[in-house]
Amino acid sequence: MKDSINLLIIIFAIIILILLAIYGHEYDKNKNEWNNGYCSCGGHWKYEQSVEDTYIYRCDNCGKTIEVEEVQAFVVTIKNGV
Ligand SMILES: [Zn+2]
User: Fold this and answer.
1) What's the rounded mean pLDDT across residues 40-61?
2) How far is the CA of 6 from the centre of ligand 1 (A)?
């Protein structure tokens, strides 16, 4: 009985680690695509629309779109406010 509880704890810990790895990967991907507000072509990301917690931006130069999380939208709000 004790062994099976230990096994459950190990499985639970592995699931948490996998979820953290996926979340970290998504965060890095968003950060790279966002690139401090600049598209890889040199254009600026312009806010287009939001879908639940995801914000969609379109490049004002090449028309490419990206989806980013709320944290980048917050940064844009601050930048625009200054
Ligand atoms: Zn672009």
Assistant:
1) 89
2) 51
